[in-house]
Task: structure prediction
Amino acid sequence: MKKIVSLLFVTLLFSMAAWSQTRSVTGKVTEQSGDPVPFATVTIKGSKSTSVAGADGIFKIQSKTGDVLVFTAVNFQSTEVTVGAESVVNASLVRGNSTLTDVVVTTALGIQRQAKSLGYSTAKVASKDLTQAKVVNLQNGLTGKVSGLNIQTTNNGVFADTRITLRGIRSLTGNNQPMLILDGVPLALSYISSINPNDVADVTVLKSSSSTAVYGPDGVNGAIVITTKRGIKGKPQITFSNSTQFETAAYLPKLQTRFGGGSSIDANGYGVYDPIENQGYGDAFDGSLRQIGRDAPDGSKYMVTYVARPEEKKAFWNTGLTNQTDVSFATGDFYLSAQNVDINGVVPDDENHRINLRMRAEKEYNKFKASFNVNYTQGKYDITTQPGRDESVYWNLVNTPMQIPITKFKDWENDYWSNPNGYFNDYYFNPYHIIDNYRTNGRSDDFLGNIELNYKVASWMNLTYRLGASVTNTTAKSTTGSFVYSQFAKASGKSSAQSGDITAAVSDATAFSSRITSELFATFNKRVKDFNFDLLVGQSFREISTKSTNIFSNNLGQSELYNVIVRKGEPGVGESDSKQRLERFFGKFAVGYKEWAFAEFTGSYDIDSRLTNPNKPVDYKNIAFFYPGASLSIVVNEMIPSLKESKTLSYFKVRGAISKTGNVNLGPYALENTYGLGTFFPYGTIQGFSSSGTLVQSEYQPEFVNNKEVGLELGFLRNRINFEATAYTQDNTNQIIQVAFSSSTGFPRSVLNAASFTNRGLEFDLKLTPLIKLDNLTIDFKVNYAYQESKVTKIIEGVDELGVGNANFAIVGQPAFVFKLTDYLRDDQGRVIVDGTTGMPQKNTNTSVFGKTLPQNIIGLNLNVNWKGFSLSAVADYRGGNQIYSGQLGSALDFSGISERSGQNDRQAFVFPNSVYDDGTGKYVENTNIYTKSYGYNFWSQDINTGVQSNYLASGAFWKLRELALSYTVPAKVLGRTVIGKTVKGFSVGISGRNLMTWLPSSNQWTDPEFSSTTSGNGQGVNDIYNTVPTRIFGANISVQF
Amino acid sequence: MKLKNALYIVLLAVLGLIGMTGCKKSDFDINKNPNNPTDSTITYNLILPAALQNTSYLVETNWSWLQNWLSFWARSGTYAPNVTEESYQITTNFGTGIWDNAYSNNFNYEIMQQKAKQAGATFYEGVARIMKAHNFQILVDVYNNVPYFEALKGNANPTPVYDKGLDIYKDLFRQIDTAISLIQATNADLNVDYTTNDLVFGGDITKWVKFGNTLKLRLLVHLYQVPGFDFASEIAKIDATGVGYLASGESAQINPGFNSTKPNPFYRTYVRDETATATAGSVYSKANAYAVGYYNYNGDVRLSRFYTAGNQGQRGVIYGLPPAAENVAATLSAVSGPGLVASASSSAWIMTSVESLFLQAEARERGIITSGSSAEELLTLAIEESFIWLGLTGADGDAYILKNAGYPDVDYLAEGGGVYTIISQKWFALNAIAPFEVWTDYRRVDESATVNHFVYGELVGYDPGPAISVAPQNAESEIPVRLLYPQNEYNYNSPGVTPEGTITPYSPKIFWDIN
Result:
């Protein structure tokens, strides 16, 4: 803290220093509300003399009395003011038509820039577009709206986890998600779920490291820059809004509806019914009355009609309910908001709650400006834990044959047939019992505070200091209830009762993390004739500290008190601390020529504690590194006089950027081999440690990302049609990767500085604003398209393949990543080779390479229709060119015999499709008449089917109707005439839906192609049994302004 | 003020500010691991207990495939077949746990050895050398040529060359010799906590020397057909130590304080884990019908010490049989008999006194050992020790021998007895305990076994059923004689493994497999 105090002192000293000014006309350009209009252009009518106002609206221009100053700015009507005798001329602008030339975007460090001066690609999404479908999490509202931005909802449920990438990936095994900047403060991306979307004024997406150069390694994957709402000059405004949304299971995997429970075939090849089976390989449904499960102790039986009940599989899932309530108060330089969100998920009993409070205030004292922002978010959740496959909800639902009316078994505490003792299934469990028995209760408290001090040293110099702290505390308590099977159940031979007694368990974890960032930078601006020079120099410091502790016991016996204090044996304990520091010095020098040429050069010098060798004195040679960047923007229509007045071509900009960024893809303490506690150690006083098995090096180089991009921006017909195109390549070198290693070195794994790959892509944005405009009707339409590809160029010497988890592989010459899965043995034409006698295919023991795991094409369509007070908006998006692997779910469904696949060919012998056999001479002949020896249960539930991973590979393509919203805002005129008109200033109601429709290719028989078993991992395209069902969300909302 | 002056002031001020908020060099010296010991902070005495426990895991829990191949165990009808294993069509991804665990374990001993050497802790250094020899012997017996002289060096040698199995064996004798003299020179002051941290013999120097000698005897017995090996001089060195081999009741085994929440490795894998939950291994691995039938046929009471009866009494399943309801796990005998693990707190064996006596018997029979008790006497002791080790009595063993008089699989003096009896009895005695040694016997012992009963010959009047997998996919008539090198070796140590050429489950054989 000492440093901060001394800084404040120095800043105050500055404010006392008097500064002489040159004689000229100065003034401030403001909105009617009094807010400054940044970057307004000031020209003297009839002359070439031009000046541009700063971000604070203040301008300066040499002029004489009688000159007419013309003020123009984006979204405002141009205004003329005549210069009188005074030296201060203020201008007030009225909102009106826009010209693209003057669009302002919030770039790195929270600095506002004219869009035309940027040599790299950015995109801005307005608050209204973000929240039109009443998303709980901001990131869900960005989906489909920005080209190159891929937001993948990896799972439904109460958290709606997302994975966010911009322009594909830049690291094979490290982080690929962009950074988050909230009101100028860099934060961990995970914080995005703690933000109240209704607090957001706008989001700017900085798509590459060229635009985030001043953030260095944090910005290597681009950035999501969020600007929150601030007070509005004028009367205080109070807004109240509420939205209620329902979430329902949208669709299930494709299921068979012909056969019931069983797991064998009779002499004639037909399935045999078995009342206690988890598998569905019984005989065909016939509507007869059949027993399910075993007899009760009193001899009673549970009878059902033998028919398929596919609707039960859907009815199992809850109707989720999400309720959001918002209140905000805004006035002058003050903004206060509160939000409450309650979510009940589709998984029965899953809940999540979030409370968010935010206050923002700012004050100006002459040249000194201070603002602060505090945000507190509390999250509380109570969910099913699903500790393993057999305790997962979906797995147990899947292992329920089609005749079972599963929703009848909710009350396991009181109903014998629902209780584990009496539940029909001999091998697996009642999912309702699973849900109640394995729970996690968690809470998180996020506190974010930042202070910004700004001192305008001179009209050409500005000093900014910004201190931000984000502190998160989380706790999570997981519990397992005990269950002891009755002696009757054990004696009956019920399989799950044999070893299935459940011991109570508890795990309690707490984690603390803090991220403190400080940024100090000075900006200088100087205009010399037609040249405008901008210089920025700065220093930043970031410290991330974490601490986590956990305590657990897997053996509480039959206790119902979930506390380690009642454990048997020793408790398990864990502790982990970490700290890392990054100091950066950065500079940026920008030159603008007239209003059409802009060049920018950046340089960064980073010092990173993660590169410090713990056993040697700190040496800057090893821990510090430098990298440069440059960009250029040319506004052609301003450059060529003949184009200036063109009505057709209203905007024509070309741009290019090149940058290099260093990234330390290592955690702290990654430079020395470690030893972990041996299994069960300590035994009393005997300690024991073993090598972790991961070989690290004492020195690493940062990974370098070399980003190159060129772009074109066009506006036609007064920017009614806007078109933007960008092409980029990213060379990613010296990647730090963990590879499997020869264990004979002593280490099964090794972390090396070696791999390289390139990442390339194209992005197109077309905006038709408006597409149609009639009296009261406006229709806007926007399309964005991104194409993305990559190629691995090197792994390490002698090795051309690297598994990154989830069957995702980086293979030299192939895209990052491709699937490697087991397949059938095939001939060179790809036909399956079957045995000439048995007709059976064979599993190829080696894995084969399949397609890409990351999408290649992403399309977003945005439609807005406004008619009087009505507004209709729709977002649809497409992703494709990749494959998804549903191995866990697909093989589980086949194993359990409820999938459509498992019901093929009436479960009788069949000719394996597209197959050949060896005619005895080594030649492969097409198979048309050799039927499989095994079929039904003996084929579909067996390794020859479920063990062939390629059976569960499908196209990852989809179209989704992501958002559809209709709202009605009562016009002010109408409202004014009503009784409440005096107090109520605005009133709107709406209905909205998300993911209402999904279109999938027929190869995907299983689930939502966005689902993934990991959010942070790089191995994508693989879903698992812990994902919920695909859902659709719809609801209504109301908003009142006072 | 002039603009130029103003610029200077401002620039200086900015630099001053940065200076004030900027970091010192020492601010970056925060990369020392606060969570775990590292190479620079670990000490030898912290490594030994965990390393010894890991050796017991290596010995007891990596071999279910081999227990199956050797007809001790089989997959229960509750589980889907493991076609790779049951058709012997093994791949480079099969059984890699042996390789990885043995090298990992040895790396820990290697680090301990280096740290102990620096500290003059000769006891720890000696134990490290013996234990490494123990693990390398297993590696050679499974893979033949493996990285040895260049192995375990981390970044200093990321692609170690493969050394000849025989060269490794020869060096293991030297390592054990060095180890014995180091251990004999133990200075209690320089060996921190050695009596408590030595989980095997509690710092008993004599027993470590005996263990070293017994390990050498194991190597010698493996080598007996290898031409040109000087057995006499090795035996002379062993005799010179004056303590002989592990005797009755002197098994190398550990027990750091196992209990139901920290169970013995075998118990934790094949019975119940630390949460008292029945493990997958306890359901998957069940008694093999061949072994159950054979023990029964001989009236061998050890049957119910090796196996625990299922709900249909002592019953095994035929290896490779497709899953069937009549063979579900609950109907079959469990592989975790009370003789092996009475409870979660039983000691975990590394090398048993039983094996020591069998090794002595065979060595005497083959003339490697040339003095002392006769082979027959040693064999009788070995059989008695097997019964005792399993919780029965020596008298039970004598009764068993008597009952089977005239049958060469039990009776040393019966027609066809002798070596055959020793090897057969080793199979009966080391069920689940040392499958790799039984496999080695199968491979190295010259025999004219029939397909059905591999080394154990045709039995008169009793057919114990197939010893070879009956899996429909199985086209082989013999079990593999080695494993393939792990795929990671081809990926990451191609200079080392490539010269080894084509490897199949049947060739090249282990260097001592000469018949």
In short: The longest helix of chain A spans residues 2-16.
